[in-house]
Design brief:
- There is one protein chain.
- The chain folds into two domains: 145 residues, Jelly Rolls (Sandwich); 112 residues, Homeodomain-like (Arc Repressor Mutant, subunit A, Orthogonal Bundle).
- The protein is globular, with a radius of gyration of 21 Å.
- α4 packs across α6 and α7 crosses α9.
- It has ten helices and 14 strands.
- The longest helix has 20 residues.
- The strands form two sheets. The protein has an eight-stranded antiparallel sheet. Strands 2-1-7-12-9-10 form a six-stranded antiparallel sheet, with no helix packed on it.
- It has 304 residues and is α+β, with helices and mostly antiparallel strands.
């Protein structure tokens, strides 16, 4: 494990690794599951793969008030996002920081404590950001506590309760983090620069694809809409999103199709056309490549 958890009275808490098959099925790429019985309750950590560092989901259900010390083996800037409950974060030589659902904290500290309240039910995501920020060519994020806005909440919800991850789960989870952190950069002002970066063009292309999902925009048309030459945008998009624009476009179409199947009474032909698939064969082929089922079989399996 990359994180050591201890208590001042009982010492190190040994989280044993469980078989991944014992954990409920998830559409994310599950790397490992760890668990410990302690303090009349349970501590669990799930680790999910991304194309950068893994994302860790910590969950605590403990009866007494408990202070736990956490030490990270690998240094770096860490993103902590509260998913459920509340706790107090105590960094060495700093004031205590109250963390509640809907807040995040950026920190470089590798040794800190968390204070969990009585009858706690607390969970949070933890992600070491350095590999991703280097890949995105982002300047350093400031440390501190920040509130999630509406779109950041949506990205968090998608990560914590994913119904399906179109395409590669590792790429999909990393893209949710990229979008959440991009919003955070704008909120704290570190994304405001004179002139656009290549990633700004990639985000603009992402928005164009989403806004024109039913249309068959070519990569050249998308590039013109965002104001960049075709080959430059292609290279940048593949670098930052780990896939080409055409593949990303089809993944979003399939994701939208699954939403329409679940939440509307539209026919499959209507869904096909509204998602931008011109032929039944194209719809079935792309849908099957992503979900491993054809649209009719997927509807039968997931919609009562």
């Amino acid at each position: 494990m990359s994180v050591q958890i201890s208590h001042e009275r009982i010492g190190k808490i040994n989280l044993r690794q469980l078989a991944k098959e014992d954990h409920p099925e998830t559409s994310l790429s599950l790397r490992a599951v760890y668990e410990a019985q302690a303090f009349l309750g349970n501590i669990r950590m799930l680790e999910f793969n991304t194309f950068a560092d893994p994302v860790q989901l910590f969950s605590y259900e403990l009866q007494p008030t408990v202070t736990l010390r956490k030490r990270h083996k690998v240094p770096g800037l860490k993103l902590l996002i509260m998913v459920e409950g509340s706790m107090v974060l105590q960094l060495i030589d700093t004031n205590k920081v109250s963390m509640t659902q809907g807040r995040l904290f950026l920190m470089k500290a590798d040794d800190y404590s968390i204070v969990l309240p009585e009858n706690s039910k607390v969970s949070y995501l933890l992600f070491r950001m350095d590999k991703l920020t280097t890949r995105m060519e982002w300047s350093q994020f400031p440390e501190g506590r920040f509130d999630l806005n509406a779109s950041m909440h949506a990205y968090l919800h998608a990560m914590v309760q994913p119904f399906m991850c179109p395409g590669s789960p590792e790429d999909w989870l990393a893209i949710q983090l990229i979008n959440l952190l991009s919003d955070l950069r704008i909120n704290i002002g570190s994304g405001q620069k004179n002139g656009k970066t290549m990633f700004d063009y990639v985000l603009a292309a992402d928005r164009v694809i989403r806004q024109h999902l039913p249309e068959n925009l070519t990569t050249d048309q998308i590039a013109k809409l965002v104001g960049l030459y075709d080959n430059g945008l292609k290279r940048a998009f593949s670098k930052y999103y780990n896939m080409g624009m055409a593949k990303y476009q089809n993944l979003l179409r399939v994701e939208h199709a699954t939403h329409l199947i679940l939440h509307t009474d539209m026919s499959l032909v209507e869904i096909q056309l509204s998602c931008g698939f011109l032929t039944d064969d194209t719809f079935r082929r792309n849908f099957s490549e992503v979900t491993k089922l054809n649209p009719a079989a997927w509807r039968k399996k997931y919609k009562p």
